[in-house]
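Q: Hi! Curious about what Anaphase promoting complex subunit 6 looks like structurally. Here's the sequence.
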Amino acid sequence: MMATIATPTPIPPTPILGAGNIHKSNNDQQFLYLESRLTDNIKNALSMQSFTTAIYFADKLLTLYPLSSKKYADQLFLLCSSLYLDKQFQRASFLLTKYLNSIDKSGQTKCNQYQRLTLKHLAAKCKIETNEYDQCLQILGGDNDQNIINDDEQDDDIDDIDDSTDDDQQQQDNVIPFLMTDNNKSRLDNIKILRSNICMIRGKCFESMDNFKKARYWYIQSLLLDYNCYESFESLSRNHLLNYSEELELIDRLNFKAQDQWLKDLYLISLKKYDSVNQNSNTKILDTLIQLNNENIDDNNSNNNDNDNYKYFLSSNDVQTCIAEYNFYHHQFSDAYSITKKILKQDNYYNNQICLMVHISSMFELQKTNELYYTCNQLIENFTQSPISWYGVASYYQLIQNYELSLKFFTKSTSIDSRIGPSWLAFGHHFANKGEHDQAMAAYRTSSRLLTGCHLPLLCIGMELIRVHNLSLASQYLLQAKDICEYDPIIYNELGIIEYKNGKYQEAIVLFQKALDISTFNNQSSNGGEISESWEPTIYNVAHCYRKLRQFNQALKYYNMSLSLSPNNPSVFTAIGFTHHLEGKLDDAIDIYHQSLSLRDDTFTNVLLQKALSLSILEYD
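A: Let's find out. The predicted structure is below.
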């Protein structure tokens, strides 16, 4: 027979001190002791980042209060905040939404509007972490301004809070550490901070849903409520949701306090790095920072002047990144690389997207193959799931002209995050270099859709259309790019090319000169206003126009300027020789043709040389 196992007598569970076990009373010493002890345990656990311990005691603290009490909402917030820190987003959002739904149905609660919004804010943050954007918006009341506390409701809530006892206020200070509730801070300010963060969450939801117009609206509303909400500002600037003039207008609308001028300056240098000829830009501050950075001023020599604020934050990684980005956009690739290299050496895991992009792009422009290979290995090891890491790998293979692997890793970068505009822009460059027009245009258009406030995708579309001789459509895209950014000299260079191809050489000269004027202005702070080598093609184009107009002296002047910037360029030698050829100076032309051929054996130059020799022989005959 099978032995019978005796059923053990069940051990009754230890009674839990809950709402049904303890009826709260101000004279109940046991209750007050438990409340104080549990609260201290939670605070200590959170300060030690021991979230599991905090969750354990927060769960016990919650059971001390009935569901309808005002303090229940505070303790629920504390428990769910601990769950949020422990990355238990689904459980936190479930408990919060369950409570909010219950009080909406019953209506029997002392929870005021401010507490409700606090709970909704936390629940919405949990939904964002689980990528449930529709539910997040639903918690916040949808896309409706009225679902944020308006001024009248703020006054009512302040009255509600003022009616609370000192014990209630002390308890609120203990259980809401994230709101940084401070007796010295106006409660109205706390409400504005909460409203600002709710607007920011809405912006994130709409941005994740590719509704950039609404995302931009809510980010702006967030900053207008509280300009300290850097997360909203970063989303607007980093993701190029505003164009340059809109960014400057927003900064003016924020109404910074006089004592917060330092923050306004930090925001300004984070904007697009475009120079304006009328000095109506943020580059004046950047020029000061670059000068201070180059001089490495000793803090002991500090004077009480406007530069003090800059010097306080000069060593910040964010400020150094802004300086590097500024140098990169002004074709000072070596300076940009040295700054980003120093940043990443001091902070190996610094994952600022702009810093990494500038670092990778600078190495690409400087053709630092070995350094780029090493950097990409480090990025893959440290940030495997970051699209920037695979963007760097793709850039490396693009540099060594392994286009098959380059395509593979650009694809991987965009598959990890399909909303990263720079990767799509690089994708377009890859296809353009291979002559695959349709794929390049598709990538550029995707980048343009994502980077609505950036002119570069439109500029690249225009350049690609010029390459396939669709000049009319190219002009339209370039003019759109000019509307967004009128300070980029490349736009005027490309418009000049269109006029040149249309045979309008005088108009082309005006546009090429405009490009050179802007580039010279941009380089005033870096190399005394001298024209950079990168603008040699534009000077070369000006010379072509003058040659077409048969103004040979002007043409030779610009050809020689081009030659001084690119001394071993055989094309420039051929162009100079051809100009002499057209002037009838055959001996000079023949000499220059020979110099060109010594640098590169070119069929066109050989044909010109043969014709010049034939004409020279006829002259002697």
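A: A fun detail: The radius of gyration is 33 Å.
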